[in-house]
Specification:
Structural class: alpha+beta
Binding site for ATP: 9, 57, 85, 91, 102, 112
Largest sheet: 4 strands, antiparallel
Domain Nucleoside diphosphate kinase-like: 1-137
Protein name: Nucleoside diphosphate kinase
InterPro entries: NDK-like_dom, NDK-like_dom_sf, Nucleoside_diP_kinase
Bound molecules: adenosine-5'-triphosphate, magnesium ion
Strand content: 15-25%
Radius of gyration: 14 Å
Catalytic activity: a 2'-deoxyribonucleoside 5'-diphosphate + ATP = a 2'-deoxyribonucleoside 5'-triphosphate + ADP; a ribonucleoside 5'-diphosphate + ATP = a ribonucleoside 5'-triphosphate + ADP
Length: 137
């Protein structure tokens, strides 16, 4: 059993896709064990994406991630990190396989609907960035 960290990004929340995206997680056997809605401050978004601080898209990414409310969740299941990334599809929706969340719901490379941790180590760090152990069921 593994945990991963997941975000429904502002474009997907704005388009009323929270339920559709949660349905995909649950249908895949990924259990939602913590969840909250937040409107990120710039400081929170910059800290979360600190690894990308020197990338040319960083400012635009922070603008987007602070543009409206997001839903954060911890997902639990067998092989959760890899299976969640499989359900999301490729970062660039043009490369995302049919039937993945990004193929269906992304608006662009930046506004790509969802985030998912890329390793167990990232998952632990990202979960701890937003949730205390007591908020995870
Ligand atoms: P995420 O971390 O959101 O799950 P990812 O791991 O597939 O996605 P990263 O390389 O970590 O992709 O990039 C983080 C986010 O930054 C992407 O999801 C996307 O929103 C944005 N992004 C990544 N690369 C670019 C780019 N070249 N141009 C614009 N935005 C980008
Ligand atoms: Mg990433």
């Amino acid at each position: 059993i593994e945990r991963t960290f997941s975000i429904v990004k502002p474009n997907a929340v704005a388009k009323n896709l929270i339920g559709a995206i949660y349905s995909r997680f649950e249908a895949a056997g990924l259990k939602i064990v913590a969840a909250k809605m937040l409107h990120l401050t710039r400081e929170q978004a910059e800290g979360f994406y600190a690894e990308h601080a020197e990338r040319p898209f960083f400012g635009g990414l922070v603008d987007f991630m602070t543009s409206g409310p997001i839903i954060l969740q911890v997902l639990e299941g067998k092989d959760a990190v890899r299976r969640h990334r499989e359900i999301m599809g490729a970062t660039n929706p043009e490369n995302a396989l049919a039937g993945t969340l990004r193929a269906d719901y992304a608006d662009s490379l930046t506004e790509n609907a969802v985030h998912g941790s890329d390793s167990a180590e990232s998952a632990a760090r990202e979960i701890a960035y937003f949730f205390s152990e007591g908020e995870i069921c």
